[in-house]
Amino acid sequence: MSSSPSTSSSTRVLTLRASTGERFTIEAAAAAAARFSSLENGKKHDDEDDEEELRKWDAGFIRDLAPVVIHKLITASDYLGGRDELVYLLAGKVADMIKGKTSEQIMFRIANDFTPEEEEIRR
Amino acid sequence: MTNLLPPEILGNILCRLTVKDLLRCRSVSRSWCSLVDGPDFIKHHLNRSISTSRNLGLVLNARDRDLYWLDLDTLLSPVRLSQLPIVNDDDGDGIEILGCCNGVLALGNSYGFMALWNPSTRKYRNLSYSDVIEFPSRGVVDFGATGFGYDSVNDDYKLVRVVLFIDMDLDCFPTEVKVYSVKANAWKTVSDFPCYYGYQRVKGVLVNGALHWLVSKKPECDSLFLIVAFDLVNEQCREVPVPSYDDKYFYVKIGELGGCLSLVKNYNPDNNSVRVEIWVMKEYGIKESWTMLFSLMPSHTSGSFSYAENVAYFESSDRVLLDLGGEMFVLYDLKTKTVENLRIFGVPKFFEARLCVGSLVGFDGGDADNKTTRKQEEDGNNRKRQKHQKGGKKR
């Protein structure tokens, strides 16, 4: 999986290409592209002090992502070599989406995006 | 066609949820259901809750004879726990919490019925009634001690019951110790249990895979106490030393704090000057490692109280949750050495507060319903009548 940040007028667009050749893009704020490409290159966090900043920023970035994109990122993370921070953030986001919902709501919003099993409805 | 979300990742997501949410997730799809029901996920969720101090609650054994759940995540008013698997007898001692481990409560009543119950999932298992093996010709039967805990080696939950045959003419009483194993769903007798006195009406404290009780080696002895530990794995007893002390006038109770044995000394000599000391045994088994963590006196913040007990320790914030006099809770910050009042509305007066994690841990059984408890009441009344006729006294 490779990534190549490219700029557009107001936001940067991060392009991810899976080893299968599938491509998808994620719009991200300017810092995002740099952040994930540094992850991609396996660089550690530069600054321990910025750790908290980065965490806050990550949460904001994740918050606005659509479920489909989250799904792609999660499955893509395998290709990225298991980026724990990314999976961690995304898992937290999906968990938040599930909290307090009824099974029907979960089925509709989450399971449909993530699993193709509409037939197995357990009472 | 969207790809299936890998189970490890789905597990990673779902293990962050409360039991309430997870029970709803079971209805989403068959694969979600089998994931949530799987023993690996249940352990993963349990361990994560414990290590992040989430999904925690307090079970209050209230003076109105009901059990309540106080959610430590939300700190909303405690909720009465209804439909318990064993009947709450109004003229007896009510429901006793024999132990609490990994989200499972061991409950007992004065009829002798015992059950294991997960208040988050409502699943329960009634324990087969285990009669005392031999009623002695004289003497009084006293349930000296009980405890409930987890044997990590055999992945088994065990309930321990110690019965003392008290006869004041003898130097040493015989004891009967039985252990109930959830895996085997059976009781078995443990032999060679040493003779101790004065088991307090406190249930076994689970630390390091062993149940602990505060006892004394001589009868009617307030001093010279020690701690006896019953190892849940090898089912053997050992002694654990208590800290040395010069003074006498305190009431002592053991507990658990951050994985260590704790000891609370409540000083209340003339009902005027209450002082509480919280000690922990930092290195298990080493007498010299007993350290006084802090002491507390009634203050403007805490208000007055007659006694205190440590209920929980939150490692992330380095704070100890204390039960003050069975009426309110405070948080003691070990770093700043300050006390914060935990303002919770509608806390009933209670005898004890037990820390309980919300978990999916369960066993075969069913969901509690009123039919079960009504039959228990009938059986219990019959049993009570029989016991009176036999001449033994059961408490």
TrEMBL record, chain A:
Q: Name one GO biological process term.
A: ubiquitin-dependent protein catabolic process
Q: In which pathway does it act?
A: Protein modification; protein ubiquitination
Q: Which residues form the SKP1 component dimerisation domain?
A: 85-120
The organism's place on the tree of life at top rank: Eukaryota
Tell me the first and last residues of the signal peptide. none
Q: Name one Pfam family in it.
A: Skp1
> What PANTHER family does this protein map onto?
SKP1
- What this protein is called in its record is SKP1 component dimerisation domain-containing protein
The organism encoding this protein is Ficus carica (Common fig)
Automatic annotation (TrEMBL), chain B:
Q: Which residues fall in a compositionally biased region of kind Basic residues?
A: 383-395
Q: Where is this region: Disordered?
A: 367-395
Q: Which organism is it from?
A: Ficus carica
Protein's UniProt name: F-box domain-containing protein
| Bias kind Basic and acidic residues: ranges | 368-382
Domain (F-box) ranges: 1-45
Q: Which PROSITE patterns match?
A: FBOX
Check the record and name the InterPro entries matching this protein. F-box-assoc_dom_typ1 (IPR006527), F-box-assoc_interact_dom (IPR017451), F-box-like_dom_sf (IPR036047), F-box_dom (IPR001810), SCF_F-box_component (IPR050796)
Q: What is the lineage of its organism?
A: Eukaryota, Viridiplantae, Streptophyta, Embryophyta, Tracheophyta
What SMART domains does the record tag this protein with?
FBOX (SM00256)
